[in-house]
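We emphasize that the prediction below concerns an isolated chain of 224 residues; any contacts that depend on oligomerization or on bound cofactors are therefore not represented. The input was used exactly as deposited, without trimming of termini.
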Amino acid sequence: MTGATRRGRSVEGRAEVRRDLVAAAVALFRDRGYDETTVDDITAAAGVGRRTFFRYFRSKEDAISPDHETALARIAEVFETAHPDEPVPSLVLRAGETVFDLYTDDPALSVDRFRLTHDVAVLRDRESASVDHYRRLFTRYLRTRFAGEADGDLRAAVIGAAVVAAHNLALRAWLADGAPADRLDAYRGRFRRVADLLPADEGLLGVAERLEIAVGRLERGAAP
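Result of the prediction step, given as a token string:
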């Protein structure tokens, strides 16, 4: 039994094998060139076999991408577990920030991957397709949240597109800056400013009114 097989039997082990494959692909694409690198080159550098590679990736292009499936699942979990009265700006910011974790676990690797994505057309196209997956996921959940409201579909589309665009702007700026750890919060803050640009959340008025009524009742009950 190979080391990769033993590692692949646990969640942590599979994550380690995946990281090794991604790191090997990035290093080879950077040093040798994307077109000159084969799947066999990647597996040899990572110390695994071809079958192991294809358990994680469909092609060498996939090996350069972050684990977008995990990120999409995290976003879905945020939406599905959110309180119905949570303001939309708060909700979409929480969901969007989960994606930063894909890049902050290994900043140096993320920077190399970012540069390769900009230099290699096929990788750039794949990344653009991934961004669209995020936009569609946000829009779908927001459409459900705005169901029955006037212009609900339009609000969902506008907010979903705005949040993903702001996230990409902030994240790419951080990566282009070399992914400095001491500047991450500042770039996260740049992303959060999208909340000031979103359409007004009509649900906030209802929440405020209910709170005001509850406070009024408490005050009246406490009055002599």
